[in-house]
TrEMBL record:
Homodimer. Residues 33-341 form the Aminoacyl-transfer RNA synthetases class-II family profile domain. It comes from Acetobacter peroxydans. It comes from the Bacteria. Keywords: Aminoacyl-tRNA synthetase, ATP-binding, Cytoplasm, Ligase, Nucleotide-binding, Protein biosynthesis. GO terms for molecular function: ATP binding; proline-tRNA ligase activity. Its main location: cytoplasm. This is Proline--tRNA ligase. Its EC number is 6.1.1.15. GO terms for cellular component: cytosol. Belongs to the class-II aminoacyl-tRNA synthetase family. ProS type 2 subfamily. NCBIfam families: PRK12325.1, proS_fam_II.
Length: 436
């Protein structure tokens, strides 16, 4: 994309309405604009980030055989009456009436709808297990929308739902999902620590929240440093073996990790002092086993192995896709702007033409740009070098390819790595090989 022709409206000043750094930077880097309280439009660069996050989430869901669907944003109130949640959900639910005075709602989550869809078509235990997910906009009328996309009212969520024949199957599915989440967050370039979460009235131990550390996080977090810097991408867990999944699960959940809601000061004392990590965190994912809560309430059953009615065991698994864009910036920025992880950056690199109009500089920039126009943001504006450097730092491209008159003569560029500030002078092809 050529910056001179793109809709990336960067701001020089800090917008007064933004209280936290990620919100400020998302507005300043031209990623989003608010259109109503807690409701945002995603501009071209922001949409690229949202798509990149979604794609990684999707690949990791597909990897564990969850199947993608797309359910609508609008749901009928009657569906929610069947589970008993229509009245229970309260004022966070946006309730709508159509012209025939039929009651609808903008979905805050999809347990009822997926259970109904499942029940319409699955009749026998032989068709289980099944896991379905979608990446869809949700609406929750939050009392206090704030922090930009981190606590919006309309937000993009990946929500998956699983159906298993029995408890053992449901637990295996849950553990598989936990591993999938660890891989997902690692690929997104962030450290998200799984922490035991409150299971509410259902009880049991099968609920985990994933938190990214950030000083502006809404939860207090306490965890053992043993959970840091683990590599889940090469983790050789056989996801088809219940034993292997159990061993993996026990290993991940053995070190202490809890949000303030679940904090146990006695257990915390047992963590060696040098390994205690304490701070604030942002919830970016949440997985939950809830058994037959919805299948029983909505009377959705299949025929079991003994010919009797069997209520499938369910779990639900959310990832805050749009919240992640903000949360990742909270965890990865400096005083000059965003530092995007390579995997989700809107562009792999900016090409900075330090002398637009100079024949050699223009020609070299065009040549670099032509190598991968989709991956580059070419700053071809007739601006001063200082402005281009500042905007590139603000937007957080992982690399900057700097083309100036002296280097251009020799076919050399300066390649800057945003995260470290390291610079090196390289021949164009060597720079391209590193970046692409
Ligand atoms: P929170 O505690 O932040 O209100 P939640 O526990 O109500 O979140 P869940 O029902 O667990 O949220 O939804 C799954 C995920 O959706 C959350 O882990 C979070 O990442 C994301 N999410 C929830 N509410 C919002 C929101 N208002 N804006 C953006 N993302 C959200
Ligand atoms: Mg909430
Ligand atoms: Mg929560
Ligand atoms: Mg939650």
């Amino acid at each position: 994309m050529r910056l001179s022709r793109s809709f990336i409206p960067t701001l020089k000043e800090n917008p007064a309405e933004a209280q936290i750094v990620s919100h400020r930077l998302m507005l300043r880097a031209g990623l989003i604009r608010q259109t109503a309280s807690g409701i945002y439009a995603w501009l071209p660069a922001g949409l690229r980030v949202l798509r990149n996050i979604s794609q990684i989430v999707r690949e990791e869901q597909d990897r564990i055989d969850a199947q993608e669907v797309l359910m609508p944003t609008l749901q009928s109130a009657d569906l929610w009456r069947r589970s008993g949640r229509y009245d229970a959900y309260g004022p966070e639910m946006l309730r709508i009436q159509d012209r025939h005075k039929r009651e609808l709602l903008y979905g805050p989550t999809n347990e009822e709808m997926i259970t109904d869809l499942f029940g319409q078509s699955v009749k026998s235990y032989k068709e289980l297990p099944q896991a379905l997910y979608h990446i869809q906009w949700k609406f929750r009328d939050e009392v206090r929308p704030r922090f930009g996309v981190m606590r919006g009212r309309e937000f993009l969520m990946k929500d998956a739902y699983s159906f298993d024949v029995d408890y053992a199957g449901a637990v295996a599915t849950y553990r598989r999902m936990l591993l999938s989440y660890l891989r997902t967050f690692q690929r997104l370039g962030v450290q998200a620590v799984p922490m035991r979460a409150d299971t509410g009235p259902i009880g049991g131990e099968l609920s985990h929240e994933f938190l990214i550390l950030a000083p502006t996080g809404e939860s207090g977090v306490y965890y053992d440093a043993a959970l840091e810097e683990q590599d889940w991408l090469d983790e050789p867990v056989d996801v088809n073996s219940h034993e292997a999944l159990e061993a993996f699960f026990n290993r991940v959940t053995a070190p202490y990790a809890a949000t303030d809601e679940m904090h146990d000061t006695a257990a915390w004392e047992n963590v060696p002092v040098e390994r205690r990590r304490e701070g604030r965190g942002v919830e970016v994912g949440h997985i939950f086993y809830f058994g037959t809560k919805y299948t029983e309430a909505m009377d959705i059953s299949v025929v079991g192995p003994d010919g009797n009615k069997l209520y499938p065991e369910m779990g639900s698994y959310g990832i805050g896709v749009s919240r992640l864009a903000g949360a990742i910036i909270e965890a990865s920025h400096d005083e000059n702007g965003i530092i995007w992880p390579d995997s989700i950056a809107p562009f792999k690199a900016a090409i900075l033409n330090l002398k637009s109009g100079d024949e050699l500089c223009d020609a070299l920039c065009e040549r670099i740009y032509a190598a991968a126009p989709e991956s580059f943001l070419y700053d071809d504006r007739p601006e001063r070098a200082g402005v281009k450097f500042a905007d590139a730092d603000l937007m957080g491209h992982p690399w900057q390819i700097v083309v100036g008159p002296r280097g251009a003569k020799a076919g050399l560029v300066e390649l800057k790595r945003r995260a470290t500030g390291d610079r090196q002078e390289l021949a164009v092809d060597d720079a391209l090989a590193l970046v692409l």
